Amino acid sequence: xxxxxxxxxxxxxxxxxxxxxxxxxxxxxxxxxxxxxxxxxxxxxxxxxxxxxxxxxxxxxxxxxxxxxxxxxxxxxxxxxxxxxxxxxxxxxxxxxxxxxxxxxxxxxxxxxxxxxxxxxxxxxxxxxxxxxxxxxxxxxxxxxxxxxxxxxxxxxxxxxxxxxxxxxxxxxxxxxxxxxxxxxxxxxxxxxxxxxxxxxxxxxxxxxxxxxxxxxxxxxxxxxxxxxxxxxxxxxxxxxxxxxxxxxxxxxxxxxxxxxxxxxxxxxxxxxxxxxxxxxxxxxxxxxxxxxxxxxxxxxxxxxxxxxxxxxxxxxxxxxxxxxxxxxxxxxxxxxxxxxxxxxxxxxxxxxxxxxxxxxxxxxxxxxxxxxxxxxxxxxxxxxxxxxxxxxxxxxxxxxxxxxxxxxxxxxxxxxxxxxxxxxxxxxxxxxxxxxxxxxxxxxxxxxxxxxxxxxxxxxxxxxxxxxxxxxxxxxxxxxxxxxxxxxxxxxxxxxxxxxxxxxxxxxx
Length: 510
Ligand SMILES: Cc1ncc(COP(=O)(O)O)c(C=O)c1O
Hints:
Layout: H1 9-26, H2 42-46, H3 54-67, E1 78-79, H4 94-104, H5 116-128, H6 144-157, E2 168-172, H7 173-185, E3 194-200, H8 205-213, E4 216-221, H9 232-242, E5 247-254, H10 266-278, E6 282-286, H11 303-309, H12 312-315, E7 320-325, E8 338-344, H13 348-360, H14 366-376, H15 386-411, E9 417-418, E10 427-428, E11 431-432, H16 436-444, H17 449-461, E12 463-464, E13 466-467, E14 480-483, H18 488-509
Parallel strand pairs: 1-12, 3-4, 3-5, 5-6, 6-7
Antiparallel strand pairs: 2-8, 7-8, 9-11, 10-14, 13-14
Helix pairs in contact: 3-17, 4-5, 4-14, 6-14, 7-8, 15-18, 16-17, 17-18
Bound molecules: pyridoxal-5'-phosphate (PLP).
Pyridoxal-5'-phosphate binds next to helix 7.
């Protein structure tokens, strides 16, 4: 294959000569690659996604080295970099997998091993599928009876506030729905380009999607000294600064938070909604961790519920989309790519555009839709699967709560690590104090200081974390994100190793 090096150089010259001789052979003008790094979409080049960045690439390489027999100070790499529960050993919930098995291979409906309620759900889902098969496409917005079940789930969750299935869009995980809504919102040129407010630290899907779409990212900082809470004064500061160079139209909230694990109070949500209305912003409420609330005194309130309880002045005007997923909570079924969004107060003509846009990609995966149906419509107390389902669900959430508190406790015993309570979600984002000489050394190597720290931790202990710089943080502060997902005994080992490493690292550079 012919290649012309965009950078020229020795390799480039050699390839140029090869091109010329090829031209002579073919007698045609050779113009090299159509698509090069120089002429590709520049927005794509700006995209960064730290959760699967260089640290993870090195972790994969180390795993291969271990397999090949290379001696290391550890025998396995522990990947605590990503919120992937089942990759960390969490067992799937039996009922969910039973119904999915039945949907995938309907002959099993005759099998006596499967409980009747699982069979009933599978039959209902299959009847709603084209040709009674989950191998068929569905309507682009998602299977209708599943959208109805989602709407009923939202109503139950929010104490009876109505939800219209027409406003529900099933999606390929929450990521897909979030990007789709951003796509609708981003437009304009120069100072009129859409600005999108995102929390810092943030979940890097947001910065990546904004880079891809060429939108303006507006950072608002969470308050680390107050348990990563959100202060409307900070939203105002960020908004008025951004108005100088873009057109802020969107406010994104993650609650419970990733990577910071905070749970917003009802009062805070009310303040945010009031702010969005005053400033004429579209609200995006990322609520994928809605069941993951652990800390005493914390409770999940959906933005939709609070919006409607604030009365018609708000509930009939504030435009909003909220997102949920099958990847998190007690399910951890990341690979099935299930999710939904509910849109509220969206202009009907824009909604028609949204429906058109999702139809271009045909439909979200049907197994993911089926799974979502079981999440929003779980076994009921009078059904045979109820007891086991509740036992499994409660056990997963209780273990996560235990690990959240263990993580905070252990990190806070180490001088130089400060860890806020993990009130919810699946992560901790502790602050690390790094010696100046370590910071200088990292800079010499062209690395962010917390990347340097995490890389050393990976090489020395085999623990894979994500540096805080991948999520954004206040200038001069350093953090890392770690999931609390490893099994309890393994998590204890991980925490111990990180603490020991921190002390060693600090000593080495002091
Ligand atoms: C805050 C937040 N939103 C969205 C997602 C995307 O989840 P999925 O696309 O798997 O539903 C994640 C995944 O970690 C997340 O943490």
